[in-house]
Design brief:
seven-stranded mixed β-sheet, 14 strands, about 30% helix, Rib-P_diPkinase
Length: about 350
């Protein structure tokens, strides 16, 4: 059954078959067929997009899930959006459940803010609206000069906890670092559970000199400033030994985060929780990137189950590690597409969501 007005076209921009599953689920929920388009790589690795139906005067939604070849994924998206623009589409909405390069959203020494570059490229290509989910930093929305709807996967993960984790009332929500404490607090308050925070782990590269103000050389240059002026040096950080703030003894530990990519920190957190007496350990996140040998490390670790959503394809990782479970979020994406196309309010999808969620 078609749940939308006429003039809606949904394209999937992925050239890889395993990445099209989410697009098919969304189209089925909306009762429409996926638009006819060819996306493929030339012999010289150039991306070619050929739209095979008219989009003139229509609302086009381009769904793109990020594959392992993230740079090709971005080019597929940009070329398809530009093709729709030059074909006189009325509006072009990008649906990127996981926004690529979202971790590179802060200045590090002499680096660059790549998220801002990606946002500018998408707007320049012709995007008029963006639907995404659980941005790594909510401030990324400010990089765009178009409307951005940053949906949340937490209702689906909370539902999974309540329905699939036996005796979840005996659980404690764990933040594997102080930086993820707000997310853990949000989960704990909604489930009426306690919270624990792991502090003192090895410093992540992401939190190392993120604001770019470390760029001046550390050697003294007396000629650059007045001899009577001495700029005090900031004392370097030194983290204490690993400690767990909160009681996890005899409890189920549920570690929550937004992205699972390099799992070393999750494995280390699970070992620490086991040592403190937790008898079962779950890891829950929105985006399961699970790069390199993450499935093997999870399988050999103290983690009992890893729960992620299908914002990214990870069927291969699930075959390698049966501990990985998937939660389907196509329902909220299809509803967002329906509301935008029909001109309805999006506030229903953000009910009970606070600033810190």
């Amino acid at each position: 059954m078609n749940h939308t007005k006429g003039g809606l076209v949904i394209f999937t921009a992925n050239s890889h078959p395993s990445s099209r599953e989410l697009s098919k689920r969304i189209a089925e929920r909306l009762g429409v067929e996926l638009g006819k388009v060819q996306v493929y790589q030339e012999a010289n690795r150039e991306t070619r997009v050929q739209i095979q139906e008219s989009v003139r005067g229509k609302d086009v939604f381009v769904i793109q899930t990020v594959s392992k070849d993230v740079n090709t994924t971005i080019m597929e998206m940009l070329i398809m959006v530009y093709a729709c623009r030059t074909s006189c589409a009325r509006s072009i909405t990008g649906v990127l459940p996981y926004f690529p390069y979202s971790k590179q959203c802060k200045m590090r020494k002499r680096g660059s803010i790549v998220s801002k570059l990606i946002a500018s490229m998408m707007c320049k290509a012709g995007l008029t609206h963006l639907i995404t989910m659980d941005l790594h930093q909510k401030e990324i929305q400010g990089f765009f000069n178009i409307p951005v709807d940053n949906l949340r996967a937490s209702p689906f993960l909370l539902q999974y906890i309540q329905e699939e984790i036996p005796d979840y009332r005996n659980a404690v929500i764990v933040a594997k670092s102080p930086s993820s404490a707000k997310r853990a607090q949000s989960f704990a308050e909604r489930l009426r559970l306690g919270i624990a925070v792991i502090h003192g782990e090895a410093q992540d590269a992401e939190s190392d000199q993120v604001d770019g103000r470390h760029s001046p050389p550390t050697v003294k240059t007396t000629g650059a400033i007045h001899p009577s002026m001495e700029i005090p040096l900031l004392i370097p950080k030194e983290k204490p030994p690993i400690t767990v703030v909160g009681d996890v003894g005899g409890r189920i530990a549920i570690i929550v985060d937004d992205i699972i990519d390099d799992v070393d920190s999750f494995v280390a957190a699970a070992e620490t929780l086991k040592e403190r007496g937790a008898y079962k350990i779950y890891v829950m996140a929105t985006h399961g990137i699970l790069s390199s040998d993450a499935p093997r490390l999870i399988e050999e670790s103290a983690i009992d189950e890893v729960v992620v959503t299908n914002t990214m394809p990870h069927e291969l990782q699930k075959l390698q590690c049966p501990k990985i479970k998937t939660v389907d979020i196509s329902m909220i994406l299809s509803e967002a597409i329906r509301r935008i196309h029909n001109g309805e309010s999006m506030s229903y999808l953000f009910r009970n969501i606070g600033v810190d969620d």
